[in-house]
Amino acid sequence: MEHALSPTSLAELRRPRPYPAVSVLTPTHRREPDNAQDPVRLRNVVAEAKKQLEADPSVTRERRSDVVDQLDRALAEVDLAHAEDGLVIFAAPGEHQVWSLARSVPERVVLSDTFLTRNLVSAHAAERPFWVLSVSADRITLWNGGVDRVTESRAGGFPLTRSQQNFDAERREQIGDMPSTFRDEDTKHFLRDADTAMAALLREDPRPLYVTGEQAALALWDELGNVARESTPVRHGGLAQAGPEAVWQAIRPHLDAESRRSTSSVTRELESARGHKAFAAGVDEVWQNAREGRVRLLAVEENYRTTVRDDGDHLVPAVSGDLDSRDDIVDEIVEQCLETGAEVRFVPDGTLGDENGIAGVLRY
To answer: What is the pTM of this model?
Structure first.
């Protein structure tokens, strides 16, 4: 199952497909007893997708058979033992993907000529993705970070490794001491290669970057100067060879501190915008401004969800399952704001007070 959404993978998902491109969404659960319902719900929603394919007269028998086979393959890849909060299956002629999301999604099936990506986009924004680079003299490991975990990443050619035999043991023997390997020219070249690879990756997929290592490693990394200017050092050695849980525990205090700073910053900006009459609050008002490209900063409480329908002039409350109801309007707003260049921040529940879970700072 896929977890990490990069700009490149999003662009690939959004390209037009031969009809039908099928998007299957279902909420999932991490813990008992709620997760007991997940296998049944998943089978039912996939069965509904097959039913819609069967009933669509524009889908040829050959193409229907192909897409049904892709759905079955996707279903076989789902690992509900490691489920998060939402699951998305994409299937089209000749291809399929399975995405696990740390954000709930509404249960739905969509047949179109593109995949439905708004829920992935919103989940990616809510997850506040980051990179961790763990530096040592013989291995440099890259970690992909999200809301509650890190996983090793192979992006950018990482991990980088070199053999212990490349260390300058002869020089250490000649001068009679054990100088830091981080003063060795080969080690400097090794870290410089990592700096170059990381700079390229940040251009492709920009995120906050944390760099872990012993003090000597961080000093050399800072001396190189390129990516170091955009990264946060974390003095903790031994993580290049460690498992993801050890890396997560080392990074978590820094993430918590950054989250508090970010929330305080958002609160100040919203208060200032209110005073300058550049403020919108509530799903209807924010949606109206988002469609016009007026939102500069969108703030959404982490677990805010609402169901609405469009009565022509405004969004009004609705019940899930009603005709024309929109269960994922919050994700629509997030995607729309990101597409018009807005900054999107997810904040802890209760942060926005009386603003009904969503608010924005307007450009004009």
So the answer is: 0.78
Supply the angle between the helices 7-14 and 118-127 in degrees, to the nearest 10.
Answer: 170
pLDDT in tens, the chain (364 residues): 776 788 788 889 999 999 999 999 999 999 989 899 999 999 999 999 999 999 999 999 999 999 999 999 999 999 999 899 999 999 999 999 999 998 889 899 999 999 999 999 898 888 889 999 999 999 999 999 988 889 999 999 999 999 865 454 444 434 444 456 777 888 999 999 999 999 999 998 999 999 999 999 999 999 987 898 889 999 999 999 999 999 999 999 999 999 999 999 999 999 999 999 999 999 999 999 999 999 999 999 998 999 999 988 899 999 887 888 888 899 999 999 999 999 999 999 999 987 789 999 999 8
Do residues 132 and 150 make contact, with C-beta atoms less than 8 angstroms apart? yes
